[in-house]
Each structure stands twice: as C-alpha cells, then as structure tokens.
Amino acid sequence: MSTIIKVTAVAVAAGLGLVTLSACGGSDSGKDSADSKTVTLVSHDSWAVSKNVLKDFEKSSGYKVTVLKDGDAGEAVNKAILSKDNPQGDVLFGVDNTLLSRALDNGLFQPYEAKGLDQVGTEYQLDKDKHRVTPIDTGNICVNYDKKYFADHKLTPPASFDDLAKPAYKNLLVTENVSTSSPGLGFLLGSAARYGDNGWQGYWKKLKANGVKVVDGWEQAYNEEFSGSAGGRKTGGDRPLVVSYASSPPAEAIYSDPQPKTAPTGVATGTCFRQTEFAGLLSNAKNEKGGKALLDFLIAKQFQQDMPLNMFVDPVTKDAALPADYAKYDVKVDSPKTMAPQKIADNRDAWVKTWTSLVLK
Asked: Do residues 341 and 101 make contact, with C-beta atoms less than 8 angstroms apart?
C-alpha cells in the first residue's frame, strides 16, 4: 500500500491477520558500523516476505536483515524525517506517491541507482533523474463491493465515482479519514483527478448528503464496517461499499476455506487511484553498502514474484510473473486515476484541510 496514516496500501493480508514479519528489530538497530554484516530495513507494519526468499538473500549477500516496523506508512515517513541525522536503519520501504514529495523535500534519501532498474516500468519511476527512491510495488486504491449484498437486493454495483453519489447507494459507502489513512487520501486524490481542482469539493458534498460514513483507518473500514469482508461478517458490518484496494478480492478468496471459484467481493474499477510504493537508501545510513544490496534485492525477480501473496501488491518489474493463485482472482484496472507527485505536494495539505471542513464538520 502512507499522513497517512494507516498502513499502505496494499496491506490487505496484514489487515486480515494473515501476514507475519520475517524479521524484526529494535530502535538500536541503526548503531551498526559501516562494515557491519547487518542491514536494517525500516518499514510500515505491512512488510512481509517469505522466509526462504529472505534467507536466499542473506546467504548470497552475506548480510543479515533486520526489519524495524514503524507503524503505518505515514508514521514511518514522519519518524524517518525526524531522525534523518541519526536514522534508525539503512533503507526505508513504504513511502508511496501520495507522500513522496514530503520525503524528498526533507532530504530523507541519498541517491542510488539500483541494479535491475531497467526492468522497472518507466511509469513507476517518479524520481528517475535523481534515483533517490526505487519503485518496489504498485496497486490501486478502489471502492470494493459486497457481491452478495447487491445480488440479494437486486441492485447493480456502482462502477464509477459518479455512481457513488446516486440515491440508489445512499448510506452504503464507508471510507477512511484522509488525514489518517493512506487509502482515504488516495480516494480523495482520485476524486480530485476525476473532477478537477475546483470540482472535487462539490462531489464530496454530494457524497456526504448521500450518507458516506468516515472512520479513522482501513482496518476499521474494511474489517469492521464492510459487510463483504471476513472480518466485517464477524462484527456485523453493514456497509456493502468500502474504500480499499483492487487486491482485496484476491486476499478474500485465497484465504477462504475452501477457496471459492470467484472472489466474494468486487471492484468498482472506475473509482481507482494508482498507488506506487518506493524504498530508498536513507541519508546518513550506517551501512550504505548493505542498504544498496538490499535495494537491489527488492527489485530482483525472486522478491518481486514473492510479493503478491505476502503483501497483496503487484510487481513493478517487467520480468516478474504473478503467482497462479493471485492471478486467478486478480482484478484488472485499465485506467486508474493518477496525479503527478508535485501536484500532490502543492495541494495535499490544503485539500486535506478543505475536505475535513466539508465532510467532518
């Protein structure tokens, strides 16, 4: 999956309690000397990798990887900025395009052109001239819907931003606070991309009048309020529409027992906003050499193909194939909304403030 904010994106499996860390570390991990054989990755809480994949890297590189979880992506970025003169680790993973400008403007990373970058799609290389960050994964923030609810009510699921404001979907949508949640912020940016700088406010007025519910973060929205998730069914969630990810249906299906032929949830593909996550070598990293090796590993084919079933995100490299289980339930989003990082930087804080006044007051 960053202000944020609640875990990035694409942390569906972690929200379901199904992904565990392969390694963890403490705040003193940054004390390693420059020639240390330990390299420390600072990340949001949704970091995950298969044990054998991590062991292969450690064996081939000679480095022991320590992972320091630092809350959601927004917290991780903010903490990294505050500690940039004496960083907690060597590499930060999980800053996404909604927060990228904040990290770069604060001088959080030092340049490094990772080996294998030529395999990464150019559309994901948002800092390609300076190489301060390396694209690692991508996904789409989208409205998900509970298929059973819409079938039972003989109601066609919404397909677009416009649909969500229609009377037929009154009191059905739950979303996240844009100031405390990465998907919430992404959904706001998607609406701004759809309706323009001066049009998104009127759209949100319509959503508010149509009964949109706002909660603090993705975990609450998806696993408690959303009727289509395993967690929501247990808690009695009554909202059949939720702002989540295009990868949420594969997660729901793969971790069902038995696995269904089709996922129990769907995606309104006309509501999607592309999210890309990056990693970078921290300024003043204690182990620069180890950090560079780790960045090379993160865009290597083995890790890229391991990501989908661990973090429920898509690879960014051209040579990586999706695992069969993931591909079976994968939802294709042909034209997600996007926004240039500088435009996000120029407007994010003001838009969040305006959104808060419009929707929460």
From this structure: yes
What pLDDT is recorded for position 341? 85
124 token code pair: 């994901």
- Tokens in use for 250? 């594969």
DSSP structure string for 272-291:
EEEEEEEEEEETT-S-HHHH
- Return the pLDDT at 344: 93
pLDDT grade for 73, boundaries at 50, 70 and 90: confident
Q: Which of 222, 208, 273, 226 is nearest to 246 (CA)?
A: 273
Q: Kind of pairing, strands 91-96 and 314-315? A: unpaired
Q: Which residues, listed in sequence order, are joined to residue 142 by a DSSP beta bridge? A: 244
Nearest-Å Rg of the Cα atoms of the chain is 20
- pTM, entire model: 0.83
Phi, psi dihedral angles at 167 (to 5 degrees): -55, -30
Spatial neighbors of 238 by CB under 8 A, at least 6 apart, are: 225, 227
Helix pair 200-209, 182-195: axis angle to 10 deg: 120
CB 326 within 8 A of CB 250: yes
Alpha helices in 221-335 (DSSP H): 230-235, 248-254, 288-298, 301-306, 308-311, 324-329
Give the burial class of 172: count Cβ atoms within 10 A of its Cβ; 0-12 exposed, 13-18 middle, 19 or more buried: buried
d(CA 87, CA 188): 32
Distances (CA, A) of 238 to 223, 226, 244: 11, 6, 16
Identify whether the C-beta of residue 163 lies closer than 8 Å to the C-beta of residue 268: yes
